[in-house]
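G.,

No rush on this.
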Amino acid sequence: MKEIYGNMWDFYGRDNYIVCITTNGFVKKDGTAVMGRGSALEAKQRWPWFPKALGESIRKNGNVVRIFNTSEDNIDGIVVFPVKHNWWEMGNLELIQESAKDLEAFAIGASDHIFILGRPGCNNGRLEWKDVKPLIEFLPDNVHVITRKVII
């Protein structure tokens, strides 16, 4: 795992980069996933079809890491990285660690790609980076954890 600063969306669509958005596992009655804040909201704004696709996937496969194609030519995609089960909860450290293990498998299998992940659970999940970082430090060097804030 490497730590970097910037905007994750600056990497979307670049060759060999995959953006990871943090999500929750709540599916509304209409079948759409709740994507109301953070990188999930940004993804929903880019792809209005995405909440329905994610909701269907959660109902079928559970609240787990998965890859979605975001273009018709299947070249571009994003990874969904669950950090909590319900939108109103704090980030779940156990779920974050499980998601990191799944992301590790993807990253090892696609070692020619760089995965860009925001600090999971640290904004809308209300967790502290000092508590999350030790749980995901095992991620390989092709996973870059990004934050927009420069910490001095």
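When you get to it, here's the other one too:
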Amino acid sequence: MPAVIKTCNLFNQTFAQHQKQLPTLGKKVEDFLRFKTDNPTQPYGSSDYSMNSNAPIGRAVPKIRHAHLTKDLSVFYAVSGIPTTLYLFAILGHKEAGTGDAPNIKTQKNVGKAFKSQDFS
């Protein structure tokens, strides 16, 4: 049975924002969703992994994952439930998420709070 996909306002906003700068983002998200709908627990490439559970984002949303869609942009998501459901939180660049070469813990805490407060109903 294919996974159910749920989005929140933050995902919709960040997708629209980044698609303005990268028109091919829609295709990349479609590819990700096509793969994950049929294989929700399988990694979408080598950059698909769980966020560190001891870091701010991982503490705010246990079992949250992220997968690169481009060199900089990642989709943040979680998988759970029966039927299997994909929860799409946001599409963010490394700097926006605070996860770049110079990690920004304050940004990560703010992102974690934003993710935790999202409504998927």
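The domain at 4-116 is CATH 3.30.2310.20 (YaeB-like fold). The two ends are 21 Å apart (CA to CA).

Enjoy the weekend,
O.
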